[in-house]
Design goal:
Length: 220
Amino acid sequence: MQKDIYLIRGMESELYDDFRNRIFAMVNPLKSKYDSVKLVLTEKKPPLYAVIPFKKSKIAAISVYSGKTIEKIHSLLDSKGFIGSYAVTEALPVKYEKTWEDGKITPGVCLLTLFRKKKKLEYEKFLDRWHNGHTPLSLKVHPLWHYNRNVVESRYPDNSEKFDGIVEEHCKTSSELFNPFKFFGNPLIIIPRMLQVYFDVNSFIDYPSIEPYLVAEYYI
């Protein structure tokens, strides 16, 4: 199954509702053309104080799945705020059971993270650290209900913003993501775990350029 992800940034002057309506107007016509279409997007401001340094800007990640070659979707390529389309290899180290209807918001809360590999790190070492080091650590430390891991294989067009990884992490409740004692653990272990995760991430990701967003998910 081929998967492409399209990234679209919201305009600074665009209200959250206007951004949501614009994205859904572009995405809804796609549902009859592909095997599956999934959308995550910012719908509201992130918490003012949070252990995760959420970006305050708006973004949408539109995932298109097909059993055959996916032609480029020009309605998305030509949209305001488009920053790139990415052919990816998807993995689901932990997966929820979908029991809700298409078009309904996925329960819980979702964290979308866009990142680049550490500049001086060899690509194969980057993948090994990400897949065999960080992924097991994340599943051990955080209360993740669903983990959607995407390795970027190619970009279109060539001048698209460069990302090497696109990850969606889901928790069942908002407090599991926003409350550091639930996201990292009880007071006796929280500081060592926070330091462990920070140093682990910083060992393979270009940390200054990482982009974490609070998003909502929809299967179209």
